Amino acid sequence: MTDSPPADRARFSGVSENFHYLAYPANLLVWVSDAKGLCTYVSPSWTTFTGRKLADELGNGWLDRVHVDDREALILGLDNGCRSKAGKQQPFRLMFRYLREDGMYRWLMSQGMPHSTPNNEFVGYLSLCFDVTPYQEGEAEMERSIQEVFPLLKQTRLIAVILDVHGRVQFSNGGLCRLLKRSGSTLLDCNLFEHYLAACNRDLLESLYPGGTQCTNFPAQFQSELLTSENKSCHVSWHAVIWRDFAGRAKGAMLIGDDVTNLLHEEEQTSLYVKAFEATDHAIIVTDIVGTIISVNRAFTNLTGYSRDEAVGNNPRILQSGRHDQAFYKQLWETLLATGHWHGDVWDRRKDGSIYPKYLSISAIKNPAGELTNFVGIFYDNSERKAVEDRLEYLAHYDSLTGLPNRSLLLDRLEQAIERAIRIGSKVALLYLDLDHFKLVNDTHGHSAGDELLKAVAQRMRTCVRAVDTIARLGGDEFVVLVPDASGSDDARIIAQKLLEVLNPPYAIEGHSAISTPSIGISIYPDDGGSAQDLMKHADTAMYQAKQGGHGSFRFFDTAAHVKKDAH
């Protein structure tokens, strides 16, 4: 392409100035081109988005960075827009992938129109773009997963709250409203722990949100003391699940809480009012200093199935499920003897052999002389809470459509595989797979057919790997196969060939025959990178080269030349 005539440049410099005010919103990307398609203006937000200098975006270089699969449709759409229809040029709305400086393609929705002089002479294009990658590559699916669990959280008696990375409430159920005696509208978007932590518990805020942002190692379990609207203190035992976006970055935390205020009060009063313990709904067990049971209450019998006569004289070991090792009990006793208290979740066994989860709090009781005399345990069945937690854990780490691990779980397993490879001197293979023509299936038969195709692909892929390998769906039509303890490229080659064999044949989807062959890129640790991010990026690069070289093939990443080499 050649430079535009001076008149065109002058006209479009005016356009750039007229639309300069659009450059400031960070989520709005603006570009302007002349009649020959040469880019003459981009907004500051555009260069911030791409990571490149302004000079690199002007001219014809911008079109070269449009994904090869999207370039032809983009050019056609722009050409159609500038052609007169009933004497008028048409606005356009196009979607394409654009390459950033960091090597990642992002989906852009471009809405714009041709620009003409007062004499209807076509002089170029003006377009406003939005980054819609989250809705194309799985982040929106994660949001839908959160929506799926909302009804579950609304129906439970437990306290449920979703916080963003700054600790602000994004969702809370009736349990939190009842606990704090505040309306849902009051709690929405407020900083839960900053506003409602008791003064004696303020150090918890800094440990959870140092500098106002969620800490890297957010605790899976912790307790907090909160103040109600009546300034009354209440204690909550929290279980936390971290939510991450499609790139593995933390988006916030979902907390499931249990009001243990009454339990803690009972703990404090037990040494003075042991005879009154029959009135509580919580199971209570009292032992001597060597661990022999000397008393239990009615709630204990109802929960465990052991009568008072069967329990007294025995050791609490009769309740052990076998799910905890000696290290667990060693830590329990060390904490109990050092502090006088221990609390946490335990798996126990009833008399009939059934195993159940319970919340247990143990206190050491001393006489007026300070001598240890007894241990008192208070506990209750928390199966409902465990069921909610297990569901949340699943949604946080697995794709809701295919049941495969998601990006977050894949990255965790990839890091572990690399650490093991370092220890034993093995290799790790990563196969990055993209379905060819998947968009055509969606456009032709609808999104439900596309979903059925993705599930069918996942099922076929499971037949190609070992039990120790991991298949993950990253979002959209992209999958990854992680092969730990690989001997080298030969293992990856065999799996890639198997994947082509099982994924190339047509699929029967909703009464139609659909073909969606895979393009596969392969990277090997440590040959092609020393980190999980490098392996993912290089496998993705090799996959795009395989797609450009012809659908239904695979390629290895070429470290020396930073290009991919054909392996098929």
Task: Describe the 3D structure.
This protein is α+β, with helices and mostly antiparallel strands and 568 residues long. The protein has four domains: 6-131, 2-Layer Sandwich (Beta-Lactamase); 139-259, Beta-Lactamase (2-Layer Sandwich), CATH 3.30.450; 263-386, Beta-Lactamase; 398-566, Alpha-Beta Plaits, CATH 3.30.70. It is built from 21 helices and 23 strands.
What is the count of β-strands? 23
CATH class of the largest domain: Alpha Beta
The major sheet is characterized as:
6 strands, mixed
- How many helix segments? 21
Q: How confident overall, as mean pLDDT?
A: 83
- The best one-word shape is elongated
Q: CATH superfamily assignment of the largest domain?
A: Reverse transcriptase/Diguanylate cyclase domain
Task: Give the distance, in angstroms, between the N- and C-terminal Cα atoms.
Answer: 36 Å
- The strands making up the biggest β-sheet line up spatially as 17-18-16-21-22-23
